[in-house]
Each structure stands twice: as structure tokens, then as C-alpha cells.
Amino acid sequence: MIHHLFDPDRRPAGFTLLELSIVLIVIGLLLGGVLKGQQVIEAARIKRVALETVMVGEAIRTYRSLYAAWPGDDPRAAERWPGARNGNGDGRIDGHWQPEQPDEETGLIWSHLRYARLLTGEGGDGSSPRHPLGGRVGVEERILGLPGLAICLEEIPGRVAAGYDAQFDDGVWNTGRIRRTAPTAAGSAIGYGDAEETVGVCTAL
Question: Taking the domains of the chain in order of start, what are their residue ranges?
Fold first, then answer.
């Protein structure tokens, strides 16, 4: 009996403190890696939102520089491209942007940009493009109290929208040059919501 109690080849059941410490360290490293990975993904999404806004803005500015008119409002588009529709030439992009209403100037803008080869797609296509996160892109004048034109992106995850505003503006959802659009019926009335809720974000051109 005594021999078995003090047998050096016999190990006690369970983990030693050293083994538990190693397990906890490994778990901590794994959790840290996961969190770091999430932060990298979120940062990449924020940059994609910013890049999309810049690219659309540059296309609009380039069109205006080339043709002395805003795309969508251009009264001479049909002279340049057979099949194109003219805007009214009043110096504004009229209408309220909606993906299903491409005939207003807020829809013609995409057709004009495509005719001018400043946006991918066929010239007669007035549909709103989609941004890298899957939602639609729109342009509207004097929306949300912003001066002039604004580029709006739909269906942005709340945390990404908040990060975009914080990184490129004042971080407040209803002030500055980046603002959140009106909430949906199920959305929160203030702020950018949580990571699960998607919101629209408009950026002054």
C-alpha cells in the first residue's frame, strides 16, 4: 500500500497549475487574435466606405469639369450621346433619390456618368450602383441640412458608419459633413445604432 502511495510513476488526476496557466494563456492569445481580426475587418470596411464616397465624388467633379454641367442636370447630354436624356440645366440635381425612380435628375446622374465613361456600365443604365458593402449609392441636393450635393450610401453597419464619421468628420451622427439618414421604422431614432443595425450615411460633396 505504501509503495503505491509513493510510486513516482503515478500522477495525480486533473491539471497542474502550470498546465492551467498555459491553457489560459493560449485562450487569451486566441481571443486577442479574434478581436484584432475583427478590428482589421472593421477598419477595412470603413476605408471601403470612404473610398466609394471619394470615387463617386471625383466622377461627379470630373463630369462638371469636362462638360460645365452637373451629371443628371446636363441640358446637352443628348447632343453628345444619342439616346441620352437631358436634364433641365438649372444648376441643381433635382428630385429625391430613390433606386426605383431613375427618370428624375437624381437618377439621370448615373446614366450621364456612364455615358461619359466615368462609371462602369452602359450609358442608358440609370440604376443606382451598389457600394462594396452591398447597399445602394445615391446623390441628392440639400439633404439632411447638408449644403449642396451629398453622396449617400445605404445599408452600412452601424459600427462601421460610426467609425467612418469618427475618422473622417466629427463623430456626431447629425452634425458635420457626414450625417446619418432618417431611420427606418425599426431603427433607432438617434446615433448609429449597434453593429447589427444598418443605416444610411450621407457625405457632403
Answer: 42-204
- As to burial, measured by CB atoms within 10 angstroms (0-12 exposed, 13-18 middle, 19+ buried), residue 196 is exposed
Contact indicator for 169, 177 with CB cutoff of 8 Å: yes
Length of the chain: 205
| Cell numbers placing 21 | 496557466
- Which strands sit side by side in the sheet containing 198-204, from one edge to the other? 137-141, 149-157, 198-204, 178-180
DSSP string computed for 109-129: HHHHHHHTTSSSS-TT--PPP
Please tell me the distance from the alpha carbon of residue 92 to that of residue 72, in angstroms, as a whole number. 9
The helix (H) or strand (E) run that includes residue 39 is helix 17-67
Q: Are 62 and 55 in contact (CB under 8 A)?
A: no
CATH class of 42-204: alpha beta
Q: Which residues contact 107 (CB under 8 A, 6 or more apart)?
A: 72, 95, 97, 98, 101, 126, 127, 128
What is the chain's pLDDT, residue by residue, as a tens digit (205 residues)?
445 444 555 555 566 777 777 777 777 677 666 555 677 778 888 889 999 999 999 999 999 999 999 999 999 999 999 999 999 999 998 887 665 555 688 889 999 999 999 998 877 788 889 998 999 999 989 899 998 899 999 999 999 999 999 999 999 999 999 999 877 656 667 888 776 788 999 999 9
